[in-house]
Amino acid sequence: MSIANVLEEGEPITPQRLFRMRRPQRLDGFNRLTMDIDGLDPQAVDPQAVDPQAASHSASLGVLADDILGFTLWDRRGERAGLVTTDLSLDFVTPTGWLGPELHADGRVVSVTRDGGVSSTAIHDSAGNLIATGTAWGNFVDAGPGPDPSPGNGVERPLEPPASIPPASIPPASIPPASVSPLTRIGGLFAEGDGTRLVVPPNSALANKLGVMHGGVQACAIDLAGNAAVSSPEAPMRTASMRINYFRPTPIDGDVEFTAEIVHAGRSMAVARVVSTGADGRVCAYATVTCRRPSSPVETPGCD
Fold it and tell me: Residue 61 has what DSSP assignment?
């Protein structure tokens, strides 16, 4: 049983709360979404992973980026009924060693047309270090049960309340500690057998407001599966980038499988192709995951 299922016995859990994110804010010229990483150990591993390195906490950034990018495009939909994200791209600049207690994802609009747009994000830790960058392409739609800034969703998320009004308290027991790995957080299990196959069991805590799997949760699972496919205890890799195409909504009333296939395996870089399928066998998303061998940074002469 996943952590999310256990927590649902108390208070309903959303992907945003599951990944310790606050409500988005509209600031001067950009939107901001904050993720709590207080107490996160970047070196923590998950015993359920095929390879301990597959428990990389960078997978959590998929949820953070997907949410801020969708929320930012949502602001520009005009009179259109909703938004569906079709493409998500992420580049991980600093996959480990973040300085807490928070990560800040700032979202900005890049381009808007009548039928959709592009948004971008830059994610920094509390010390101002650049952690990741990302972009999303979204299509505006005219039909749907209602608006939602999250990709593929249908109900608008509330904004951060003014500073003068304290946000509603959330019982600490309702949210997993920041040290819990993304793999355990989504309840994923690597299936035995040939190849790399990550299975995410039915879990309503992973759903968006329409009741299908949140796009950021899929990005999290794709990161984990792609990294596991190319890593080994002797030769660990870190996820460097992801390119995801969302084809259709992903039901969560059955197992969702993320199957990774190695496209290229070199000494310093490896590439995996990841396909997600629902319980009905239909492909829901297709992704390319690039991983790189960990390397120590080199100081540039003359720079402080």
Answer: H
